[in-house]
Design brief:
By secondary structure, this protein is α+β, with helices and mostly antiparallel strands. It is found in: Cytoplasm, Cytosol; Early endosome membrane; Endosome membrane; Late endosome membrane.
Length: 854
Amino acid sequence: MAEAEEQETGSLEESTDESEEEESEEEPKLKYERLSNGVTGILQKDAASCMTVHDKFLALGTHYGKVYLLDVQGNITQKFDVSCVKINQISLDESGEHMGVCSEDGKVQVFGLYSGEEFHETFDCPIKIVAVHPHFLRSSCKQFVTGGKKLLLFERSWMSRWKSSVLHEGEGNIRSVKWRGHLIAWANNMGVKIFDITSKQRITNVPRDDVSLRPDMYPCSLCWKDSVTLIIGWGMSVKVCSVKERHASEMRDLPSRYVEIVSQFETEFYISGLAPLCDQLVVLSYVKEVSEKTESEYCARPRLDIIQPLSETCEEISSDALTVRGFQENECRDYHLEYSEGEPLFYIVSPRDVVVAKERDQDDHIDWLLEKKKYEEALMAAEISQKNIKRHKILDIGLAYINHLVAKGEYDIAARKCQKILGKNAALWEYEVYKFKEIGQLRAISPYLPRGDPVLKPLIYEMILHEFLESDYEGFATLIREWPGDLYNNSVIVQAVRDHLKKDCQNRTLLKTLAELYTYDKNYSNALEIYLTLRHKDVFQLIHKHNLFGSIKDKIVLLMDFDSEKAVDMLLDNEDKISIKKVVEELEDRPELQHVYLHKLFKRDHHKGQRYHEKQISLYAEYDRPNLLPFLRDSIHCPLEKALEICQQRNFVEETVYLLSRMGNSRRALKMIMEELHDVDKAIEFAKEQDDGELWEDLILYSIDKPPFITGLLNNIGTHVDPILLIHRIKEGMEIPNLRDSLVKILQDYNLQILLREGCKKILVADSLSLLKKMHRTQMKGVLVDEENVCESCLSPVLPSDAAKPFSVVVFHCRHMFHKECLPVPSMSSPAQFCNICSAKHRGPGSAILEMKK
C-alpha cells in the first residue's frame, strides 16, 4: 500500500504502524499536499467541521461558527461570523454566487456573496444539513432544503416571501443531503431517499444495511456521479444507484422514475466520504486497528482508495494511508471528502487538517521513478512526454542515470548510455571522460566516444590511447583502426608507440599499429616496409590504394615470398607501372618465382612474354613439368630445336613425341611411342591424328610380332585401315589375346558402316526426289511477259508494238528472254537450247521452258 507524501515545511505525524512506513513498489495514483497558508492559522485556533468546493474557491466551516472563503492555495479571501457553535454544512450553487450555511444552534442562512438578498432563520433544533438549488441564480430556482428532524423545502414566492413545505419527517435526523439537477437525495436514520423536485414525488427508498451502527457516528456519504447516478456509502457498504424513466405502460399510480442498484459491494473499512473519478470511485475510509501489544482498538491513519466498481464486488486500484494531524483522536464522522468537478481535486477534511489529493502528472510519475532509482524508465517517460513535463529535463535525468550506474559499478552500461544522453554536447562529453578517468574506467567509455559530430579535443582521444597503450596493446590497435586519424595528434602517438617498441621491438601488434599510423600520416614507405616485414595481408591493399608501385620495384621478391598469387596478379594488372622486363630481372636469382610470374603471364596472353618463351622451356622442365606440354602446344614463339634438346636431355618422352611430330618427323615419334612408351593405344591415337598411310604401315609392321599390339590394332583400326591388311599378315599359329572378341568387334563395326551407308543413301534419295519435285513445280509455273521486258540479245522489247504481227519469244528458267530469231540455231548434235547469258557465266544449263508464238 503506497504511502502519501505530504508536502509541508513542518514535520508530519509519525505513523502508529511501522510496517506502513515501508515504501511500496507500486506507484501511487494520487499525490498529496496540505492546504496551508491561511488554513494553517485557522486550524491552529479552531477546528474544521465542514467544507464545500467550487471550481473558483473553497468554503470552510469551523467548530467556532466561522465560515471562511479561501482561494485554491488556502489564502483567506472572506470571513463570515455565522454562529458561535459548530457549522454543520455549507452549500454553494453552481455559479458560486450564493451560499447556504447551517449550524448546530439551529441557524440557517442563505445569502448572495455578491448581492444583498438573504434568508435568515433560526430553528428550535440543530440543523444538520442545507442544500441550495444548483441553479439558485435563476429566479425560477430560488429553492433550498434544510434538514434537522425533518426535511424542509423553502421556495420563494412571487412576492419575494419564502414558503416552506415538509418533504419528509418521522425517521430521525436528516444527516446528509445532495442536490443534483431536479433530484434531491438525503439520508436519515432509516435509509436514503430521492425526491424529484419537478414531479414533487419521492421516487425511491434505499434502506440502510447495517442498522447496528450509530448514524450520528457513522454518517451516510452521498455523491452524484452524474445527473442520474447516485453513489451511497454507509458503514462498509457501497451502492451505485441509477435513476431511470419508467415506461408509460407501467406508470399507473407509480412515480415516473425509479431507481435501480447497478452495483453493490462491501469495503474493508468504514466509509467517511465518496467522490467519482471517471468510471472509478475515490473512497475515504476510517480505519480502526487492534494493537498487538494491548489488544485494544485504536484509530489508525485514514485511507484514500481508488476502486473500480463491479456488479457485486470491486477492484482496488490504489490505496494510500494519509498522515493527517490528530488522526489518533478522530472519529468516522470527523472526516469529509469533498471534490472539485472542474478538475480532479479531492479535499480530505479533518478537524485539524485539510489535505488536497490530485492525480499525478507525468512530472510526478518521473519523480516516483527517480525516487525508486528506476532511471531508465524515468528517462523513457521523459522522452515520450517531453512536451508535457515542466519540472524535469531529459538531460538532467540522463546525467543522474549515468551517475547512478557509475555508483553501482556498471561502467560499461553507463558509458553506453552516454551516447544517447550526452548526444552532441562536447562539453558534457569531455566532463564525463574526465570523470571516468578519475575512477580509472577510461577503457569503458572509449568505444562510445563521438568520432564525427561532435569532435572532442585531441587531448581527450590521446589520453585514452595512452591508457590503452600502457595496458592493452590489442585494444590500442583496435582504437587506432576504428578512430579517424584526424581525431588526435598523430605524431604524438607515433612517438609513444616507437618508445614502447624500444622495449619490445618484435611485438607484431605494435608494429602493425605503427604501420597504420604511418599510413594516416601519409608516410607510406615506412608503412610498406613494416607490412612486408610482418608479411601482412594489407600490404597489397596499401600499394593499390596509395599507388606505391614506385616503392616496390626493389621489393618484388619480398612480395612474391609473402603471397606469390596476389603479387603476380598485382604486377600483371599494373604492367604500365612495373614492366615485365623489370619483374623478370628482379626475379633472376629466384627462378622458381620467375616461373610463377611468367606462367601467369603466358596464361593471360600467349604473345606478351614471347621473348621469354625459350627461358620458360627450362623453367617448366625444372619446376612445372605437367604444364610443359600445354605450353609447347600453345606457344608459337618457342624454338622447337631448343625445346627438343631439353626434352631429350631430361628424357621427357611425351614432350619429345609432340615436338618430333610438330617438326615433321612423325615416323620417329611413332617409334618412340612404340619402343619407349609401349602404349599401343597412344600409338593408334597418334596415327589417327596424323592420318598418314605410311604411319599405319609402320605401326602394323612394328606390331605384327607383338600379340597385345595386334589386339589393340584389331580393336581400333577398323575405321581407318582395312582390317584384312592386318589379318593377312598375322602368322599362323600366333596366339593373340581376345582374338575372337576383336574379330567380332571388326564385324560389328563393318555391319554398322554398311547400315550407316544404306541409311545415308535412303536419306539422299528421299531428299533428291523431294528437291526434284520442288524444281518441277517451280518450272511448271507461268512467267509474266509484258511490254517492259526486253530481249537480252538485241535489247529491244520482247513484245512487238503491233500485237497483230506474228512473233516468237523464248523464255528460259533463269527468266532471261530472247526473240527466237536472236538465238543461235541449234545443231543436230545438240538440239537443246541454252541461255547465252547463263552459259557464259557458268551458271549451269538454262534450257528453254517456254516458247511463245503468234
